[in-house]
Amino acid sequence: MNKFSEVRKIKVLGNPINKNNSSLHPNTLMLIGNNENYTIIPSQFYITDKKIDIETKYNNQKISRDISKNMDTPDLSLPLTDILNIYDIDTYDELLEVIKKLINNNKPDETIFRIVNIYTRIFFDNLKKNSSSLIKIFKIIFEDSKINETKTKKFLNDWFQNNKSDNFNFNICKDYKNFLSN
Fold it and tell me: Which residue among 18, 40, 77, 148 is least crowded, i.e. fewest CB within 10 A of its CB?
């Protein structure tokens, strides 16, 4: 059995890579070397080719929050129903309760929109036939006083006619929010 004479160390993910050093990229797990005259951060370097921005923006002072914000995250291949199961949503009433809890806990609109979009995508055909159930959701998410049921029904009918459950840009809540602002 051979004994290794050298100890190999790999830097912590997200640490800067100085000139003539190397590190594992946090997402691809590929070894990245730095032959440049400035420090690079693997996660930032991965998502942008503007190397000058890396040098001036970070300049050897790293904040883990900034690094995690700029990391390109890998895709998760979870079925949509599993995402609803994470929130314990099996029924329409449970969806309403989860939305209320998220709003009370000051969660970002994007989180709430994502859950409603997943629910809408799963039950697209049923909601297309009976879109009035979305009005109650909109009343919870958006200010109740802004909701005009007649205009909202027209919006929903138009929206379902112009969208499919497998559209790439599928965001009924954002589209409704834009509708309200017009």
Answer: 77
Dihedrals φ, ψ of 22, to 5°? -140, 165
Q: What's this model's pTM, rounded to 2 decimal places?
A: 0.58
Secondary structure of 96-122 as H, E, C letters: HHHHHHHHHCCCCHHHHHHHHHHHHHH
Encode pLDDT of 60-106 as tens digits: 444 455 555 555 555 557 788 888 998 999 999 999 999 999 999 99
Q: What is the pLDDT of residues 138-161, one digit of tens each?
A: 999 997 777 889 999 999 999 999
Tokens found for residue 177: 């929010």
Q: Where are the domains of the chain?
A: 22-70, 80-181
**Closest to 120 in 3D by CA, of 75, 76, 164, 58:** 164
